[in-house]
Amino acid sequence: MTEIDNAAIDKLSPFKTLTPEQERLVEDIIAFSKGHLQGDYPAVYTIFGDAGTGKSVVLSQLFDRIQKAARTDKTSPFYQTKNYFLVNHPEILKVYREIAGGIKELYKKDFARPTSLINQLDKRNEKIDLAIIDEAHLLLSKADHYNNFYHDNQLVEIIKRAKVVVIVFDEYQVLRMKSLWTISRLRAITDRYPHKEYHLTHMFRMNASDDLVKWFNDFTAGQLTALPANARDGYDFRIYDDAEKMRQAIVRRNDEVGLSRILSTSGYPSTLDGGKHYIEEGRFKMPWDQYNYTVTPWAELPETIDEVGSIYTCQGFDLNYTGIIIGPPISQTPGTEKLQVNLDRYTDVEAFKKRDDLTDPAEVTKLKKQMIMNSLNVLFKRGVYGTYIYAHDPLLRETLTTLFTAAGLSLPKEE
């Protein structure tokens, strides 16, 4: 394998070479923004794309070009405009601020959490010109007094305070009720303003075949399908019937190339009390990820090879190899090729806070189940060079093993 650059700042660098499609997209957003900077109404540009389709790379380069024009080009419509890059994810925010530290025209203060910017602008009675929002599916869509957000919707409040808003959105990465979004809920807001949309579809992150990516998507849609014969073409895909054996393999991958971690869905003891809570599966026993107080992303800390990552530490990041534990909330329906979601076994108490605008119990149940599958989708789309899977549910574990061997693949042995 060629030498691997594991730094998140390099993967999101504004100096990364764009594909022709990405370059056209950046240029189109710049033209759109120029056309609406002097408008009477805010304007919104939405980029849709699944995990790994290069959304953040586009935004990084876009913001770099705009800020260079804002600070150095007196002939540009962006000159002396006030612009911010927003992301509601503390781990990803660390990466963008580290990038800014090495570029003269970018300031760390240009990058902020949405609530911080909204409250700051209100305190100063100010507005801004352009807001770029990464991971817009993480924006709050209800008040969250614990985090000092007292309005009803972060996107609405940002649009009120900006002339142009550019967002990236993936409906399959919506993970919490307080950040409940669907495409229809999003468009109910964006359609009020001059707006434009673009869909990114090509998977850049994973070296996996399109057929294997489709198999992951079918899985998170609740359907077990035959594994493609090319599941391991250029990609290290494995099914394990022993979680400890999978852990040992991930440790070896980490020793070889770095940035390889064990990840898990919810369904195991987990409380925000500062203590360690363990995931146990037979011989396997490891603690959940701890809150990361450093400026370094969780996955880049060497010691986190001895922790299990969650959606809150790995979402938005590339990993070289992932060992994924599919926990108790997801099991196989006996006698079928379908998956079921067991809400009573979900242990992430923060995910399903009550919303006053949801009164239909059937709708609430459907949304909760979709969010659990979304969390697995986030985990499935992390591994650049390989994905290893272990399932808690015995029936699902057996079926996955059968599908693996039926595709002509051999189960991993001790290395």
Low-pLDDT stretches are none
* Percent range of helical residues: 25-40%
Order of helices and strands: HHEHEHEHEHEHEHEHEEEEHEEEHEH
Counting helices, strands and paired strands, the structural category is alpha/beta
**Biggest sheet: strands, sense, closure?**
6 strands, parallel
Number of helical segments?
12
**Mean pLDDT level:** 91
Strands in their spatial order, largest beta sheet: 3-2-4-5-1-6
Q: Number of DSSP strands?
A: 15
If you compute it from the alpha carbons, what radius of gyration comes out, rounded to the nearest whole angstrom?
22 Å
What does the overall shape look like?
globular
Determine the N-to-C terminus distance: 18 Å
Strand content: 15-25%
Characterise the protein shown here.
The model has no long low-confidence stretch (mean pLDDT 91). This protein has a 6-stranded parallel beta sheet with strand order 3-2-4-5-1-6. Strands 7-15-12-8-11 form a 5-stranded parallel beta sheet, with helices on both faces. The protein has a two-stranded antiparallel ribbon with strand order 9-10. The chain has helices at 8-11, 20-36, 55-72, 90-100, 114-124, 154-160, 183-190, 210-220, 243-257, 311-314, 361-380, 394-406; strands at 43-49, 83-87, 111-112, 128-134, 162-169, 195-200, 236-240, 260-264, 278-281, 284-287, 308-309, 319-326, 330-332, 339-341, 383-391. With 415 residues, it is of the alpha/beta class. α2 packs across α3. β13 (330-332) and β14 form a beta hairpin.
